[in-house]
Amino acid sequence: MTRTDYFHDPSAPTPNSIKVAVSAIVRDDQGRILMIHRTDNNLYSIPGGGLEAGETISEAVVREVKEETGIDVRVLDMVGVFSNPEHVIAYDDGEVRQEFSICFIAQPTGGEPRTSTESKDVRWVPVEQLPGLDIHPSIKLRIVEGLGHRNGPYFT
Distance between CA 102 and CA 104 in Å, rounded? Predict the structure, then answer.
């Protein structure tokens, strides 16, 4: 399924859903960040996805990172809650979602990087190389907040 991200765009369609989503900033022992190249919008991103019925929010983080990257993680902390109504995501099935994502910091515990149906590239990226990647502004904000993690979570 393809998606189109609208960000501060007056021509964006009106949202018809909100779904709880999670994302994770995963850093290896060299300080690199785990990034995926998404198949649905062709942008680079931190791994993440929707909460499923019957799982906790931290279980969703662990599952989504594993599904999209092949990396096992342990959730360490929360970066914040990202719920910008100016970020609208339209899917080709007619769903138009308002952004709502809870971002976490997670530590890799095992696994090997591999792609999935949601990721056409998975790599550990040095922080100084992030500006060279095409990353949506909402994901850039999560990375900035995660790298500068301060006392207390970020929220809008």
Answer: 7
Can you say how many angstroms the Cα of residue 111 is from the centroid of all Cα atoms in its chain?
Answer: 19
CATH number assigned to the domain comprising residue 88: 3.90.79.10
- 10 Å CB burial of residue 86 (0-12, 13-18, 19+) is middle
Residue at 156 is within a domain: no
User: Structural domain of residue 26, as residue ranges?
Assistant: 3-147
The pLDDT tens digits of the residues spanning 28-45 come to 999 999 999 999 899 999
Distance CA 8, CA 58 (A): 30
Number of Cβ atoms within 10 Å of the Cβ of 120:
12
Residue 131 belongs to some domain of the structure: yes
In a domain, 152, yes or no: no
What are the tens digits of pLDDT across the range 113-143? Answer: 999 999 999 999 999 999 999 999 999 999 9
pTM over 0.85: yes
Please tell me the total count of domains within the chain. 1
Residue 154 belongs to a domain: no
Distance CA 124, CA 104 (A): 17
- Give the residue carrying structure tokens 């850039």: 140
